[in-house]
TrEMBL record:
This is Predicted signal transduction protein with a C-terminal ATPase domain. Pfam families: His_kinase. GO terms for molecular function: phosphorelay sensor kinase activity. One of its GO terms (cellular component) is membrane. It comes from Serpentinimonas maccroryi. Keywords: Membrane, Transmembrane, Transmembrane helix. The chain crosses the membrane at residues 12-34, 54-71, 78-97, 103-127. Residues 141-217 form the Signal transduction histidine kinase internal region domain.
């Protein structure tokens, strides 16, 4: 299923950088490959800067200011508005340079407007292609691979734990079944939809409760540092559970004495930071676990979804010390009702 086309978020730092860099690259390619002969391309490039750079920056700034309006507009209408805006700014700047500054520019104001519209159309085509490439709706195999992170033997062990509890502690067995249901319900959710952080934390707690029942509280020593977490912040679904599963699988399970796992979530200005840590046993075991570093497929899937929703403003990275493995996720703070990347 092809996701609906959407305009880029013109208030996103990554979008800004891509617009500026790609526009300059297209201008350079035009000058080098298609510019008039008899004049060095670097000299042509410098001469055209007066005509090209100010309207480019002005258009980007206006798009930043108009982003709330564009976000509420349909894709086709927004596309027309962006093209008209770029063409109008280029034409007005052409007239201002010739009549206000007294400088002669090649071509007419209509020519400048048409070039700006063509350049803007090329950039919007790139952003649409990039969204289609990153969209999990077009990568069902990747989403299925992420869903497969809940490994069959995890389900098998969990059900065995439920069977063992049915006679002795039926209420706890019922609670585990509820946790499993919540976990698998999240696996079937739309990966393009952002969800409240509080919902992700509840899912993470459900997963840890199941694993604690299986491994024992002495082996899986979980620490929650989420008292300052903004529960209404919007994050991609299945952001925390795969990271916690990596910590359990590569930190707790290999160590007979178990390990400490911690989840820390807090705000740093307008940036949300999430840390998932697990201690490593000393010696060769720690080196092997740190080298393995968890499931790269899941980390790559999370990285792609962060790029889809937040572009360059989000980051996931992992590192380790002699005794601890750490995964850090940084993303901009968004609040409000759950939204879709396709909206």
């Amino acid at each position: 299923m092809k996701p609906p086309a959407t305009l880029p978020d013109f208030r996103n730092l990554g979008v800004w950088l891509r617009i500026l860099l790609l526009a300059q690259a297209l201008r350079l390619a035009f000058v080098v490959l298609g510019g008039p002969g008899g004049q060095p391309w670097l000299e042509q490039l410098l001469q055209q800067s007066v005509r090209f750079d100010p309207p480019l920056l002005a258009t980007v700034l206006l798009l930043y200011l108009l982003q709330p309006l564009l976000a509420r507009t349909s894709y086709r209408r927004g596309l027309v508005l962006v093209l008209l805006l770029a063409a109008s700014v280029a034409a007005l700047w052409h007239v201002a340079v010739e009549q206000g500054l007294g400088l002669a520019l090649a071509g007419s104001a209509a020519h400048s407007a048409s070039v700006a519209a063509l350049l803007t159309g090329a950039l919007l085509f790139y952003f649409d292609w990039r969204q289609q490439r990153l969209s999990p709706a077009l990568a069902e195999a990747r989403l299925a691979a992420l869903q497969a992170r809940i490994r069959p033997h995890f389900l098998f062990n969990s059900l065995n734990s439920v069977l063992a509890l049915l006679r002795r502690q039926p209420q706890q067995a019922e609670a585990v079944l509820h946790d499993l249901a919540d976990l698998y319900r999240a696996l079937l959710s739309d990966a393009r939809t952002l969800v409240p952080l509080g919902q992700e934390l509840a899912l993470a707690r459900a997963y840890i409760e199941i694993e604690t029942l299986r491994l024992g509280a002495q082996r899986l020593r979980m620490q929650w540092r989420t008292e300052h977490a903004p529960l209404q912040a919007l994050v991609p679904p299945l952001l925390l559970q795969p990271l916690l599963e990596n910590a359990v699988r590569y930190g707790v399970e290999p160590a007979p004495e178990g390990a400490e796992v911690s989840l820390e979530v807090y705000l740093d200005g307008s940036e949300l930071r999430l840390f998932v840590r697990n201690t490593l046993a000393p010696g060769p075991l720690a080196a092997a676990a740190a080298a393995a570093g968890g499931n790269h497929m899941a980390l790559g899937n999370i990285r792609e979804r962060l790029q889809l929703h937040f572009d360059a403003e989000a980051q996931i990275r992992r590192y380790h010390t002699d005794c601890e493995h750490v995964v850090l996720v940084r993303l901009p703070l968004r609040k409000g009702a759950a939204e879709s990347a396709a909206e």
